[in-house]
Design goal:
Layout lengths: L1 H7 L2 H10 L1 H23 L7 H13 L7 E2 L6 H4 L2 E10 L3 E4 L2 H4 L13 H12 L7 E6 L2 E6 L1 H9 L4 E9 L1
Parallel strand pairs: 1-3, 3-5, 4-6
Antiparallel strand pairs: 2-6, 4-5
Helix pairs in contact: 2-3, 4-7, 7-8
Length: about 180
């Protein structure tokens, strides 16, 4: 039933068009038919039907579980990471679960350890979610690898969206710290 619900949404508009009648009813009916055709074509040709409302719901669901800033942070300008040797490994698919932190202090204060976003990132996050649901290929994230763990340099929102969509892996430019 849920799959067909989006095809039925123009029905109230069509009913209102009949009740109103006249030129206003004609235009309302015309809009209802266009909406129905648009949704039917999405279903027939592989459209996801992913819209802003779905993205907002996904964001609210994640943001409700946001526990505050508890994402692991590794400072790259001091301590062991600052003097570690680096080896670029290129683009690899890494396990989402292996991403445990960040090298950006601001992002460590914005995301929790499950990469649930803070409220301020709603706009950017929902745009990324929509793009991912519509099949837009995202650029690889950038990470540092320490042992079997990864710390995000760039791509925090992409990691968050991938986790929200249940992805098991994500493409990443990997730099290994030894």
């Amino acid at each position: 039933m849920r799959r067909h619900r989006s095809l039925l949404l123009p029905a109230p508009l069509a009913a209102a068009a009949i009740v109103i009648g006249g030129i206003a009813g004609f235009f309302l009916g015309f809009v209802a038919v266009l909406l129905w055709i648009d949704r039917l074509l999405d279903r027939l040709f592989g459209g996801t039907g992913a819209g802003r409302v779905e993205a907002e719901r996904a964001f609210r669901r994640l943001a409700r579980g946001h526990r505050g800033p508890d994402l692991a942070y590794v400072a790259m300008d001091s301590g062991p990471a600052a003097v570690a040797s680096r080896r670029a490994l290129g683009v690899q698919t890494i396990a989402i679960d292996s991403i445990v932190g960040t090298v950006d202090r601001h992002k460590a204060e914005s995301f929790d350890r499950s990469f649930r976003p803070a409220e301020w990132s709603r706009g950017r996050w929902t745009l990324m979610y929509l793009a991912a649901r519509r099949g837009v290929e995202m650029p690889p994230v950038s990470v540092y690898r320490v042992g079997d763990r990864h710390y995000v340099r760039d791509g925090h929102h992409r990691v968050s969206v991938a986790r929200a969509l249940g992805a098991r892996g994500i493409d990443a430019h990997v730099v290994e710290l030894t």
